[in-house]
């Protein structure tokens, strides 16, 4: 029993020693060809920095979007027979609600001006004669009610607020103007999909770059591989330094990509700060989260190992008798 | 230890390197393999080290048919055979020490053990003072001795040598042959392919003679027995051929 145990222990020891030798050998070969290694790592870093940088841009745009969504407003159309005094009284009543930040009453004339502007009638400007010339619009006959533009205090309570407004007997219709928010959301979704596609494409690039690099490396060290095989190295032993080399390249590429993106964000910090100042809203640039950086390193390292595995296995088949 | 039974080896392209070779090498035996270049000496050694597989017959190593073992088992087998190659097969970008340490590192030995055994092996071939030199800075003879040190550092039960004295001056080759004899006396089975017939005669060991892929002679020769001079018979055959 104890003999079996000590034998197992010896096996583990020699296994870990073999790993140690492979690890040193892989670092040795990277250091022996520093220019080659650096060029590869630079290519990997650029390939990874592009999707990562775009993702960070998207992340920050999303944050801005969240800030902008606070500016959403409700348009409350009052009954057409309600006059100005009643409309203004209702407005000030609503503005006292806790969930309401501001109320802006819009007169039928102002509403007409806005509407005409929106549908491109330069001369409409609310005069009845101008619209009368265009009976197809029918605006004169219908007329416009007083409208209250309401800015909610809290975006999350938008639905409850609109329900509460709807229950008021003076209110005809509540319109939540979310179109542009939806459009921005849709745009951001497209952008996100683009980033995802690019991430896949550049992950494949990393795989191929590392695979190709290891393939060249294997060819250059063909003689060494033959010698190793002849003195009794297992395919696993021969493969291992190359797998480590792939791992190092992947990790170094990811690390450099991260540094590039951080540098880019740092450079963007100044102009973004100025833009934020002009809006009087403080915008903090988001940095890559630890999870994202960890995922990037792990993913790139794994791709390195896989790429090296593909290249070495292919070459070993050709070399082994 | 090593048994060849009706072994033939034909390379792709039709070259018949060996045909119907039969011999047995007992454990602890030392033998020479002679024959002119192209006779099949290297192929015979490569079959034992499983660098080639036979196309006919079987090669037994320690009673196992090694032509049939799976490729997974090859590394383990090769660690039991030390091979000295004609073209050294050394890693030119590594130091002498690292080259000799290679088989021990592959076997997963501890660093202190590796140092001790590499130093011992380098001492035996007289290169201890050059352990930190790179291979290209050594002479051909020195490189050959590094190859020998690498082959014997793992203390394999079998040593195969392909022209180990090819690049050495007579004094040095005699010294190395003495080293092989010492290793053999310590129990290692040794098979040496060589051109150096004078040396073969002087040592008077069992000699296998290959000619055109066939084994034409198997026996002991010594300097006094001129009738069984393999050089003479080889010379005659070579002459008749050209």
Describe this structure in words.
The complex is a heterodimer of chains A (about 325) and B (about 240). Chain A has helices at about 1-30, 35-70, 85-95, 110-120, 130, 140, 160-165, 180-220, 220-230, 235-280, 290-320, and strands at about 75-80, 100-105, 145-150, 170-175. The two termini of chain A are about 40 Å apart. Chain A is an alpha+beta fold. In chain A, helix 10 (about 235-280) runs antiparallel to helix 11. In chain A, about 75% of the residues lie in helices and about 5% in strands. The longest helix of chain A has about 45 residues, at about 235-280. Chain A folds into 2 domains: about 20-70 and about 180-320, no CATH class; about 75-180, Alpha-Beta Plaits, CATH 3.30.70. Chain B is α/β, with parallel strands linked by helices and about 240 residues long. Chain B has 2 domains: about 1-80 and about 155-240, P-loop containing nucleotide triphosphate hydrolases (Rossmann fold, 3-Layer(aba) Sandwich); about 90-155, no CATH class. Chain B has helices at about 40-50, 75-80, 95-105, 110-125, 140-155, 170-185, 195-205, 230-240; strands spanning about 1-10, 15-25, 30-35, 55-60, 65, 80-85, 160, 190-195, 205-210, 215-220. A 6-stranded mixed β-sheet of chain B has the order 6-7-8-3-9-10, sandwiched between helices. In chain B, strands 2-1-4-5 form a 4-stranded antiparallel β-sheet, covered by helices on one side. The radius of gyration of chain B is 18 Å and the shape is globular. At the A-B interface, helix 1 and helix 9 of A face helix 2 and helix 3 of B.
